[in-house]
């Protein structure tokens, strides 16, 4: 019998949930607007928390936020928001919940202006993923000039919870940036 080779992946993927996310999704280019909205909501919710917490609540978010349909989320009224703030399946932070509603409206405006959110957001990297060659997690920056520019523009357009660090995490998640370490089996 042959020896079984150990799969090498980015060091942050340690639990079954984070390993599954890393191995299938993280860093894979996303061009579907609804999925881009999902990551915008989830990355904003993650602020100050672990990504593992958000992954555990992801299904709850999907149910609570109308399958991440921005046209539906933008119509959430105060009574719906009040119910969300009682929902243990999501992060019950008023600013984070209301930002999802605010961001849905801004998201739809970007779609109207650019034809799609995908066309808009991928423009910040020239339409092609930035492929980095990091040897360890310590080398990966928390933000870049591109995430700074994205953050500034999103903020100008009325988006909330879109600081540069959040934007960089979003860019990593949706594959605008390939930050898999050089030894990771997912490295391009």
Summarize the structure in words.
Helix 2 packs antiparallel against helix 6 (94-114), helix 2 crosses helix 9 (164-173) and helix 8 crosses helix 9. The chain is mainly alpha-helical and 188 residues long. The longest helix has 21 residues, at 94-114. The chain is globular. It starts with 15 loop residues before the first helix and ends in a 10-residue tail after the last strand. It has helices at residues 16-24, 33-46, 51-64, 70-73, 78-84, 94-114, 117-122, 145-156, 164-173; strands at residues 130-131, 177-178. It has a single domain, classed as Hypothetical protein, domain 2 (Endonuclease III, domain 1).
Features:
about 190 residues; Endonuclease III, domain 1; two-stranded parallel sheet; globular
> So, CATH architecture?
Orthogonal Bundle
Distance linking N and C termini: 30 Å
Largest sheet: 2 strands, parallel
Rg estimate, integer Å: 17 Å
Task: Return the domain count.
Answer: 1
The count of DSSP E runs of length 2 or more, i.e. the number of strands, is 2
Structural class: mainly alpha
Class, according to the CATH hierarchy? Mainly Alpha
What gross morphology would you assign?
globular
- Taken in chain order, the helices and strands follow as HHHHHHHEHHE
Proportion of residues in extended strands: under 5%
CATH superfamily: Hypothetical protein, domain 2
Strand arrangement within the widest β-sheet reads: 1-2
Oligomer designation: single chain
CATH fold-type name: Endonuclease III, domain 1
Unreliable residue stretches: none
Q: Determine the mean pLDDT.
A: 97
